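Hi support team,

I'm filing this because I wasn't sure whether my run with copper (II) ion finished correctly. The job status page said complete, but I'd like someone to confirm that the output block is well-formed before I use it downstream. Pasting the exact inputs I used:
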Amino acid sequence: MGSPDVFLDANAGPYRLFVTVRVPQVIPGIAQIEIRSASNDVREIRIAPMQLTGPGSQYAPTPDVAERSKTDPQFFTGSLWLMELGSLQVRVNVDGAKGKGELSVPVPAVAQRTLPMQKPLGALLFGLMILLASAIVSISAAAVREGDVEPGAAAPASKVRRGHVATVIAALVVGSVLFIGGEWWKSDATQFARRIYSPPQLDATLQTDGQLTLRENAAHLPVGNPRRPADAINFDNLILDHGHLMHFFMLRMPEMDSFWHLHPSPVGQGTFVHDLPPIPPGHYELFADVVLSNGFPVTMVGQLDVPAYSGKALSGDDSGIVTTPISQDEGISRKDAKDSTIYSFPGGGRMIWQRDPGPLKANVPLSFQFLVQDQDGKPAHDLEPYMGMAAHAEIIRSDASVFAHVHPAGSVAMAALDLAQMQTPGVAQAGQPNGMGSMPAMNMPGMSSTVDPTISFPYGFPKPGFYRIFVQIKRAGCVETAVFGAAVN
Ligand SMILES: [Cu+2]
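And here is everything the job wrote out:
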């Protein structure tokens, strides 16, 4: 949510690619594609947009050739028209020394806002309209008045009178055409404004025994939203995303110091429930990630004031952490808000964010590298997959306007990536070693049963501000959450 660009670090056959798709703010609109190849043996990259699922995913349009950078031969760029809203993909075809490779990048296409017309263009068009309108009126008047008058002779008085009548009639006709045109434009603009995407709202209620009930706040639904009515979030039409129908996050605000990653279960009739662990009271922002059956990822948002209550112990894949408030740590309210790059685990060992020195910049695709060390400062060797992946990172802006749930493969929903690779001819569906229903194909980096202590995530901050990054891993059977701060310029 609040982070529309798509980042993917994955293999197209034998080639490892870092793909960034900058989604246009309006649809139809032009998406900018940036592809970095990890190796220098790529000869050509072709890109084509299409639907992620359904009949439209079977017929690729003629692909465009991505342009190779003159200064950096491993960097390719291209632009693609995205013509429709919804669950799309960019299909990337690579040709090179190791043969051909293919990769599908899921792209949720939504209208984010209406672009205003530029002032000079508006003024120019208005001037032209006045000129054309008055020209039509005076031409019709002149035609009636002088149409059959001999050259050089003056028009008779009767013709002059009829000319005046023609002026009035022409002005009325032109005026009504302009009026109808204006109404047409306005209704088109209203139609478009209705299709601007806003995250669905969650209604959350908490009982005294700690049972949390979640449902979509239907009253808030924008009419004509692109995911409706065909893709209504009826909670019965969702697909598993790394083993769960919903990944639910709670973050205490404004201090960002109590963070929970839970997995509520559906109980029918559009409702999810969960027994909350004993989390500290306070005001929480809620984010619920679900994936629609067409691969479209939705983050639902809400708020909850949590009173003191006795909760049940954490279980299953649930995890959480209570950590330092940001005002005591990086100091969000202070001018000198700074990054924090080392996190010590309470049980020993630490995680280090290995980043380039220098300020972080918004809208720059980055590879976030984290190293897990044991208590002796050596690379840790007790990491296990957590929900099938090396790690999960949740990146949240201090005003909760950005929430991204990112994995080593990228910012796209794993379930959508899974769908995309299934649709790709020639990508073999490897057996699912961990028996989980919805896991990406095995060509995704970071997907194996032994987990390397060095973890990387592809992501770019969508705007300046202060962010907290929660990196979740599993060590020797226990989920641990490391916390980092990022001041982004
Ligand atoms: Cu995850």
